[in-house]
C-alpha cells in the first residue's frame, strides 16, 4: 500500500481504555491560556513514569468559551477515577489557578460520570458563587482580581495508546514529518499527543536487565539495525518517530491517525509508515491503517 | 524610595535553603531543546502541590555546550536529596530521553555533592560509553539514533522563595511588567522563575477553613480591598503579581531581583513594588530591596 | 452607548475604494508559509509612503489548499490596477519564489477582473505546465526542487481605511486591547490590518510646516491633551491606538470592526472606543459603530 | 576537505561593496521591537527587485540600549548613498514611527559618513528636543505618547553578497541545516541574511529568454540534474539552499560564514557545502571556505 508515494504497512495500532477529562482554560489572551495549559500538562508524557498523561487538545475560539475570552482545551488521561480526580485537582490548583487571568470550565458538560474539583476553599470565605456564560462557577479573590472556576467536571472512558510510526531517510525528514503530523492532529477534536513526538520506543521488560520494567525497542533502532535479528527498520531508513495519541473515543483517534499520516507522507524523505501493537494482547481497541486510510 | 518614578517599598524578601540541580539539554535545534525542557519542567510551579520546582534558566549557546548543539539549561529544586534525585531521574527519563534528538549534560561539574541518574539500562545491553566534549556519557540506541547522556550530576544547596510584588493600575500594566521582569531575569544566570508569574498569593493556613494548609492572601487582593482590614493594596492599584525566584545562590537571586524590578518599573501604569516575608520566621535568607536596588 | 462596560462613541469610520488581490501561499509547513507571507507583505503599512498596503488575511488549512499543504492567505491593496499588478509581481518574484518550498495560488478564482503574474520565464526553458489540485500552474526548477505557481490572479474593488480607535488608561491596557482586536480580526475572512496596530495617527497637511503632506493628529495625543484646543482624548486616557482595516468588501470590514471592538472591550483598563472619519469627504463607505455593534 | 563529516568544496564566495546603515529599534518589549523591525525590513530580500536589502542583525539587551528598553538592531544595505537615505527615511517613517511604543537610535555613532533622517516635522510644532541616554533625540507626540528618535545615522561602506550553499539528501535536511545556519549567524554581530534562506538560485541573463535579466541557475537544480550539462549537484543531493550574507565589513561575513557552515554541518543528511562566485568578475571581496574554516 502507498499514500503520497510512501509505503504504508498493512498493520494496526492497539490501544486500551483510560479515563479522560477535558478542561477549558481561558485567559486574557491566547498566550497566557497556552502558558497555563502548558504548565498544567507538563511532566505528563507517559503514565509509566509520569503522574498522568496530558496535553493540549486545541484552541477554543473566544466566541465558543463561556466567558468569551480565548481558550485552550486540555485533556488529562489516567487509569483510575481516583487518580484522574487527584491529578486534575492538583494541576488546576498549582498550575492554573496560580497563573495570570485564568478561568476554568468543564469541557464535558454532557458526561454522566463526574468528578468534583473543589478549589473555592482557597478563597478563605471571600469566595462566592457566580454564573458565567450559563455555568455555575466560584469566584475566588486573588491578586490579579478573581479566579473563576467550575468545580464539577465530566469524565469519560476514553482510549490511550493510539499510535503510528514514521520512518524517514534521516532525522530532519522524519522529524519534520512528525511535526507536520502533530500539527494536523491538533486540528482534530477529541484527542492529543502527550509527548508529542516519541524518539525512544520501548518494549515491555528487558532481555539483559531483569529489574527493568521497560527498555529500548531495539527492533526500531536504525543505528543497530545490523546487530539486531528481526530488525523492523527497512533499508535506507535513518530515523524513526512514533506519534502516540490519546482520545476521548475511538473515532477521534481514527481521524487523528488519518490526518497525521496524510500530513507526514507529504514531507520529502519519508519511506515507511507502520503502527504498533502487541498482537492483540494489550487492549480491546484496534486501529487498522488500511481501513483508516481507505487504501 | 522611587525607581523610574515607581514607589519602592522599604521591605525585604525572605527565602529558605533548597537543593538545586542544573541539567543542560541539547537538541538538533533550540526549538526542540525548549520543547524537552518545557515538558521536563512542567507541573513544577510550587513544592506545596507539585513534586518539585523547576524551570528554564536560559539558553546555552552551541559554542558552549559539550556537543556543540543549541542548549537549554534547566534548574530543579527540592527540599531533600532523595526527592531531587528521584525527580531528576523521572523527568529526564520520561520527558527528555523520549524527546527528539536530545542529549543531557551535567550543569554543575564543580559541585561536590553528586547524584546518580542512571538511565543507560534502558539500552538493554546495546548501550555503550562514549566521550562527548570531554564528558563521560552513555550512548543509548533509540528510534531516532542515539540518546547521549551524562549520568552523574552536581547538586548544590540553593535558595528558594526569593520574590517581589508588582502592583499596577490594571491587569494589562501589571501583567506586561511581570512579563518584562521575567524576560530580564531570564538573562541572569543561576536562577529561574518556576511559575513564572504568580497571580494568586497565599498565606499559611486559613481563618475560616481549618483543614486548608494555605489560602488566598486577602491583604493582596484588590477586588476586596475595602472589605479587608489591613489591606496592603494601595489606592489606585487594580492588579498585583508576584515573581518568585529560585536560585543556586544568594547572588543570583539578588541580581535577578534587581533586573526584574528595573524592567518592571519601565512599564507605564506600575504604581508600587514590594517584597514578601514572614517577619524573619521562614528562612535565613533576606533580600532587602533598598540594598539590592542601591536606593 | 456601552459595550462590556466601555463607552462607545456614536460615530462612524469612513473608507474608500481600492483594488484588492488575494494570494494563497503554501509551504512545507506553516512556519515557512508565514515567513514568505511576512516578507512579501512587509514595508506595506500605508499607501502614503509604502509601495502598497498588504498583510496576512489568515491561515488556510491544508485540507483547503490546492496542493494539500499548510497555507497562508495574503491580501494586497493598491489604488490602481497597474500598481497592484506591479506590486504583486515584484513581491511574489522577490519574496515568495525565493523562499523555501513555496507555491502560490490564486485566492480569487471567481473574480472577473484578472492580472497576469508571469514568473515562469525565470525557468529559462526548463519550466513546464503542471496541474495541481485542479489549478493550471507552472513548475519552475529551482534549488530546492520546483516552485509551483498559478500566473493569473483575480482582483476586486475592495475597501481601504476601515478603522476604529481604542483608548485606554495606559499603554499596556490599550496595547493589549489592540493585540486582542487584531487577533480577533485575524479570524474574520476577507480583511487584514496592514500595520497591524497604529500608534501615530495623522491628519492631512500641517498647521506649521506647509511642505508636509501629513502630520500628527494632535487631537488624539494624550501627552499634549492640555495644550490642544478641542482635544478628543477623554480624561483618564493615557494611550490611544488605531486599528486600520482593509477588506475585499464592506461586509468583511463590518464584521472585523465588530469582532475587534468586542475583543478590545474585554481588556481591563479600556475607557473609550471611537472611529475616524473626515465628515464624509474622504470616501463613499461608512461604518457606523452603533449599527455594527447592534447598540 | 571535510567538516563534521560533510564534504567542503575548495571554493570561495565573491561579494561587492554596498552602503550599510544600522538602526537600533527599541520598544516596550522585545515582541513589539521585533514587529517594527520585521515590518521595516520586509520586501527587502534582494536589491534586484526590492527597493533595498534589509534584515534583523540581532537583539540588543535592554542594558545596552540608550533608553534601557529591549532593542532590535536592523541593517539596511543599498548601492548608493541617496538610495539608502531614502529607504531608511521611508521605512522608519512608515514602519517604525507608526508602530506601538517604538524609539530609534543611531547604530553607528562612530561612522564618519552620515545621513539625516528628519522625521520630527511630523510633530507639527509639538515636537521638542530631548536627550535620552546621552543621545540627542526628537520627541514627537503621537497617539500612544511620544515617539523618540535620533535623526542622524552613520553609514559605512559594507559588503553585500557573502554566501554559501548547503546541499542535502532531501528538503527537510537541507532546510533544517539552513535554519540552523541562520540561527548561528544571528549570533554574529555586523551582518544579516535578508532572505534569510534562498531556495531559488539565479544566474545573470538567460539562455532562452533574452528579455530576462536573471533566470534560474539550472546547474544548482536537483530536479533537472540529468538534463543539465555540467550540473553542480552531486549525486545523492535532493535539495540545495543558499545563505546570502550582507555585512558591515569583511570580518563579520567571514565569521558568519564560519558559524553558519559549522551549524549546518551538524545536521544529519547534509552532503556538501560550497560557495558562489563569478570567477572574480563581480566584486573585490573573496571569502575562501578553506581559509575561513581553517581546513
UniProtKB/TrEMBL annotation, chains A, B, C, D:
Top-rank taxon: Archaea
Catalysed reactions listed for this entry: N-formylmethanofuran + 5,6,7,8-tetrahydromethanopterin + H(+) = N(5)-formyl-5,6,7,8-tetrahydromethanopterin + methanofuran
Pathway(s) where this gene product acts: One-carbon metabolism; methanogenesis from CO(2); 5,10-methenyl-5,6,7,8-tetrahydromethanopterin from CO(2): step 2/3
Molecular functions (GO terms): formylmethanofuran-tetrahydromethanopterin N-formyltransferase activity
Residues covered by the Formylmethanofuran: tetrahydromethanopterin formyltransferase Ftr N-terminal domain: 1-142
GO BP: any one term: one-carbon metabolic process
Positions of the Formylmethanofuran: tetrahydromethanopterin formyltransferase Ftr C-terminal domain: 145-292
Enzyme nomenclature, EC number: 2.3.1.101
Chief place where the protein resides: cytoplasm
Pfam families in the cross-refs: FTR, FTR_C
Keyword terms, alphabetized: Acyltransferase, Cytoplasm, Methanogenesis, One-carbon metabolism, Transferase
Compartmental location: Cytoplasm
InterPro entries: ForMFR_H4MPT_ForTrfase (IPR014053), ForMFR_H4MPT_ForTrfase_C (IPR002770), ForMFR_H4MPT_ForTrfase_fd-like (IPR023447), ForMFR_H4MPT_ForTrfase_N (IPR022667)
Record's GO cellular component terms: cytoplasm
Subunit structure: Homotetramer.
Role noted for this protein: Catalyzes the reversible transfer of a formyl group from formylmethanofuran (formyl-MFR) to tetrahydromethanopterin (H(4)MPT) to produce 5-formyl tetrahydromethanopterin (5-formyl-H(4)MPT) and methanofuran (MFR).
Family to which this protein belongs: Belongs to the FTR family.
Protein name: Formylmethanofuran--tetrahydromethanopterin formyltransferase
Organism whose genome encodes this protein: Methanoplanus endosymbiosus
Gene: fhcD
